[in-house]
Amino acid sequence: MSRRGDWVYENNGGTCVAIAGADYCVVAADTRLSVGYSILTRDHSKICDLADKCVLASSGFQGDIKALHKNLAARELLYQHQHNKRMSCPAMAQLLSNTLYYKRFFPYYAFNVLGKGCVFTYDAVGSYERTGYSAQGTGSTLIMPVLDNQLKSPSPLLLPARDAVTPLSESEAIDLVKDVFASATERDIYTVSCICSLPKYCACFSFIYIYPVDPQTCKICRETSWKL
Q1: Is-cis flag, bond preceding 145, omega within 30?
Q2: CA pair distance 46, 42, nearest whole angstrom
Q3: Nearest Cα to 122, choosing from 96, 142, 87, 90?
């Protein structure tokens, strides 16, 4: 019989969401880090900016998430020195898949959403798919049905192939993210209860971080927080 000491993983909870549009990508993640019924911190970001065109949001075991993010950041830096350019999002998607599959026998306990102009969703051992939207983490089972109902992404099996981007405008996507997090917060103790936004822009499309945080402890953007 397996003992508790044999299990080396711990699920620290949290939820990540991404929605891709024609000229934007909204990536959202809560900031609560928990173990069981204990809250370790309320202002920990699960979003890692890997490159100019690539952002990774991860939920799961925090130790493995940190190791994975450091590994990918180091590989991206090597790529930058060797090729004199930053890695694209599809290239980073393949690198992340290879990295997770390489560790499949002792996997990173991390469930990832990669985005910035496009969205890639993963399982723990590297299988991935480009989609118009995705959710990972403890609140994903509550959020995905709402996204499916509102966005109705086309099946990848349809012929001819259809674009995976969602038809929503940027402001509509942000409002939808706020709504799904409000819903998940009422039912998932590991997802925090309010959000604030910090916009970033690049040459070809706009990208927005959405941080669900407690307004009393928000160190990112106190003025533009919304109480849910």
Answers
A1: no
A2: 11
A3: 96
List per-residue pLDDT tens for the chain, 228 residues long.
Answer: 444 556 678 888 888 888 888 777 888 888 888 888 888 887 788 888 887 778 888 888 888 888 989 999 999 999 999 999 888 888 888 888 888 888 888 777 776 777 656 788 888 788 888 888 888 888 888 998 888 888 876 666 666 666 667 778 888 888 888 888 888 888 888 887 555 444 443 333 334 444 444 444 444 444 343 333
Name the residue range of residue 148's domain. 4-227
* Rounded Cα distance, 63 and 60, in Å: 9
Hey, which residues does 27 pair with through a beta bridge?
A: 18, 209
- CATH number of the domain that 32 lies in? 3.60.20.10
